[in-house]
Amino acid sequence: MSTKRSTCHLLKKLRGLMKNSNFVNEQLHAYIVPTTDAHQSEYLAACDKRRAYISGFDGSAGTAIITESQAALWTDGRYFLQAERQLDSSWILMKDGLTTTPSMGEWLLEKLPTGGRVGVDPLLMSHECWKPLSKKLTAGNHMLVPVAQNLIDIIWEDRPLPPNNPLITLSTKYTGLTWQEKILFVRNKMKEKGAGILVVTALDEVAWLFNLRGSDIEYNPVFVSYAIVTHEFIGIFIEESKVDSTILHHLEVNSTQNNSNHTTVGPQKVSIYPYHAIKDYISDLVEKTSGKVWISDKSSRALVSLIPKHIRIGDLTPIAHMKAVKNSTEIEGMRRAHIKDAVTLCEFFCWLEKEVHVGNVTEVTAANKLEEIKRGQDDFMSLSFTTISSSGPNAAVIHYSPTEDTGRPITTDEIYLLDSGGQYKDGTTDVTRTVHLGTPSKEEQVHQTTLL
Questions:
Q1: CA pair distance 170, 211, nearest whole angstrom
Q2: How far apart are CA 271 and CA 255, in angstroms?
Q3: Fewer CB within 10 Å: N-end or C-end of the chain?
Q4: Would residue 56 be called left, alpha or beta, if left means φ above 0 and alpha means ψ between -120 and 50 degrees?
């Protein structure tokens, strides 16, 4: 959890771009920087952490709004303490969820000049978030406008490159169904809805549908991509260098075999397209395909707006529902993953109980030791989030992450909280344990018992 860094120079550059006709059609009076990426992911690749870059606040949730004279950041109660530590004096912390905190729309109505223009990268705002904000601003005689060039990217001189990590395939040992069987189910659901096209934008849905996993986003076994399914066609939009011969074989790309087992609802071969071709392809496909287009309202405004409202289905995709209802193989995989994770925790706490008396264990060294133990388990892929290893008062900080600067020693005199998880090929875990390695006080016993 880093300390404050100055953002004055960044805000000055951004405000200059908000008036620069080379980058915006007309002057912007406010610019919104959401947390998300083009797929509305909760966790982000380093190159997509734009809100963290402009504000200095690196919690996983929050939205920044910059006007000509002010900068404000909305985040929820998990991050109030962290935001107070990280935001410099250029920023106003908006404690979302408190009755005294205005919504972003209310705040903008108060701050904007007459006929104000509020800009945002439409790839980074979902359609379901765009609609109510746009309606509120329009009612106040203002306008929410899409900005094609992301203004943060322009001022971000050392922005990391987009991730380009390799993919792996998952067999039915882990998935229970082939991707071809999943496609058949999806196409049947499309027929029920009268949909000729399904656009898949959520990274976890693409990975699940095709039984593929990646590592483009830390702690998440996903890869940057889109997918389109019609009754005659399947396309994945992805950086083509990720797709090696193993992946091509898995997806039956350019396969000439007769997929006789998988042809009851259309062809079962996949075509690969460049990642950035998605917008042009949707526009072209909409004109040629009969039936409706199914794209979740949780997808970006940039993609949803390409599809006329009268032919658009905005419900959650059928993949979201399929993912939620686990098959027997997936259920057994979840059990295996939790058994493995439980073994690592038993081994870890056994180690900790011995080492804590030596007096050289810190929050950081404990977290590192736990990861070392987890990596020894079969089918371990990565942690599922940054381990929350927190001692004493740090255990009260929601989503605390230890660093060499903030880390405290773990002793027999204070409560120790451990929140950890793992990504295994057969499942994901997230387990929290609160312990005392000595004798807790009466007050600590009362509060912990009450909590339980």
A1: 5
A2: 10
A3: C
A4: left
Q: Looking at residue 223, what DSSP letter applies?
A: -
DSSP per residue over 148-201, as a string? Answer: SS-HHHHH-TTPPPPP-PPPEE--HHHHSS-HHHHHHHHHHHHHHHTEEEEEE-
Cβ contacts of 67 within 8 Å, gap of 6 or more: 29, 30, 111, 112
User: Hey, what are 80's tokens?
Assistant: 């109030």
- Cα(304)–Cα(308) distance, integer angstroms: 8
Question: How many CB atoms sit inside 10 A of residue 436's CB?
Answer: 15
β-strand partners of 423:
382, 428
CA angle 252, 258, 263 (to 5 degrees): 85
Give the model's confidence band at 254: pLDDT under 50 very low, under 70 low, under 90 confident, else very high.
low
Q: In angstroms, rounded to a whole number, what is the distance separating the alpha carbons of residues 310 and 304?
A: 12
Residues 298/280, Cβ–Cβ less than 8 Å:
no
Distance of CA 414 to the CA centre of its chain: 34
Residue 124 structure tokens:
């980074």
- Cβ–Cβ < 8 Å for 293, 313: yes
- Number of C-beta neighbours around residue 369 at 10 A: 17
Rg (C-alpha) for the chain, rounded Å, is 24
pLDDT tens digits, residue range 294-335? 999 999 999 999 999 999 999 999 999 999 999 999 999 999
CA-based torsion, 305, 307, 313, 315: positive or negative: negative
Residues 6+ apart with CB under 8 A from 201: 38, 39, 40, 226, 295, 296, 298, 299, 300, 303
Long-range Cβ pairs for the range 65-69 (8 Å, 24+): 65/30, 65/31, 65/32, 65/33, 65/104, 65/107, 65/108, 66/11, 66/14, 66/15, 66/18, 66/30, 66/31, 66/33, 67/29, 67/30, 67/111, 67/112, 68/15, 68/18, 68/29, 68/30
Torsion of CA 310, 311, 313, 318, to 10 degrees: 170
In the chain the first and final C-alpha atoms are separated, in Å, by 28
* pLDDT tens digits along 96-105: 999 999 999 9
Per DSSP, 144 falls in state: E
Q: How many CB atoms lie within 10 A of CB 371?
A: 17
In whole angstroms, give the CA distance from residue 92 to residue 104: 12
